[in-house]
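Researcher: Quick test of sequence recovery. Tokens follow.
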């Protein structure tokens, strides 16, 4: 199944004309038919909400949705953390974070770990509308002041006042097809629902590429749609047995590293290690949310042993925070080797006269405009 997923991901990132003949003639038509059916279902469901045959739940609090148009790797979870800290520290507001807890619930675990020392409430459940209603009965409204809906763009059963759409600069639209033929969850015109658009991993592509992505957005949406740019800035490492002990980024300068990840955009992880300056870099990529199995542990073990043998034991495994939070226990099975977790902080970049302060001001304006009784935000 992992091989099938990887093959579909490769196809989704490849323009039709560059596909091998066999895939283009045999596999692509089947996936295209499935994409057409999927697109019809999406269109019908949107229509049911437009015709008010289905009605979203409206909460007595401002709801900020953080979502994406494509599959993972767009920076949704780092953005949710960024927003949570903004409301906690700048406005003393307790956020209620609603997350689905997909697959290994790695995002939920990561959010809980980072926000464990705060008053933020992280709630996990597939039906986030029902979950929110239940929690608001338990927690008094004065305590909870804002709701942040993680991966919420397609979760139409919950009304929102602010729609933030994240876009991966390294692969903004893939091959332009809907799932499963491509990476798109909805057609590109769904960008028109956005109040704020953030192009993530903007530091990893050229200025020309950023301008191309932005021009596509502005062609689809109103030219007044605010577009911002973000990056993940590496801050430090920690070893899996000492998560509270920060190690400097220079730790890997004399090491050969094996990047092991099961995230939506592994290229961004590898590029970060290149920028940090690891001595040599090798990689093992698994599909997003993949839980390591016995055969995967053996594969990783064989690879790191061969690297250690060639490079005089100056080798280490490096994983992302998301991979660590998915299952810290399974990484213990690799305990004979040095395992480092790369920690990064989310930042709105200053680009084209727009930056962090402009983003926060626009966010506050949108929330206060939609909920006049929450102007204290």
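Model:
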């Amino acid at each position: 199944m992992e091989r099938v997923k990887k093959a579909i991901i490769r196809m989704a990132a490849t323009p039709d004309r560059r596909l091998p003949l066999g895939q283009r003639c045999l596999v692509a038509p089947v996936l295209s038919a499935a994409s057409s059916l999927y697109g019809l279902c999406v269109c019908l469901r949107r229509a049911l909400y437009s015709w008010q045959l289905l009605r979203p739940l409206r909460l007595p609090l401002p709801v900020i949705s953080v979502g994406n148009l494509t599959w993972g790797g767009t920076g949704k979870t780092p953005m949710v953390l960024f927003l949570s800290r903004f409301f906690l520290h700048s406005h003393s507001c307790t956020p209620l974070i609603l997350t689905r807890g997909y697959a290994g619930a790695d995002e939920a675990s990561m959010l809980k770990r980072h926000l464990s020392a705060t008053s933020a409430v992280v709630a996990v459940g597939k039906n986030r509308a029902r979950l929110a209603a239940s929690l608001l009965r338990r927690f008094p409204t004065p305590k909870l002041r804002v709701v942040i809906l993680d991966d919420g763009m397609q979760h139409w059963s919950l009304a929102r006042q602010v729609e933030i759409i994240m876009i991966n600069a390294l692969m903004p639209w893939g091959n332009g097809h809907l799932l499963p033929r491509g990476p798109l969850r909805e057609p590109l015109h769904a960008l028109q629902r956005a109040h704020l658009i953030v192009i993530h991993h903007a530091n990893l592509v050229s200025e020309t590429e950023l301008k191309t992505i932005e021009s596509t957005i502005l062609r689809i949406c109103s030219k007044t749609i605010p577009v911002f740019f973000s990056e993940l800035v590496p801050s430090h490492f920690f070893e899996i047995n000492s998560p509270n002990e920060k190690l400097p980024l220079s730790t890997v300068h004399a090491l050969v590293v094996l990047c092991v990840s099961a995230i939506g955009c592994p290229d961004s992880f590898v590029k970060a290690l290149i920028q940090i300056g690891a001595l040599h870099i090798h990689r093992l990529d698994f599909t997003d949310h993949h839980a390591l199995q016995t055969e995967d542990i053996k594969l990783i073990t064989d690879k790191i042993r061969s690297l250690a043998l060639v490079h005089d034991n100056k080798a280490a495994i490096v994983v992302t925070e998301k991979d660590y939070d998915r299952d810290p226990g399974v990484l213990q099975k690799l305990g004979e080797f040095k395992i480092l977790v790369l920690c990064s902080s989310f930042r709105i970049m200053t680009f084209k006269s727009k930056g962090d302060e402009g983003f926060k001001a626009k966010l506050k304006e949108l929330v206060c405009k939609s909920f006049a009784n929450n102007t204290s935000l």
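The longest helix spans residues 21-50.
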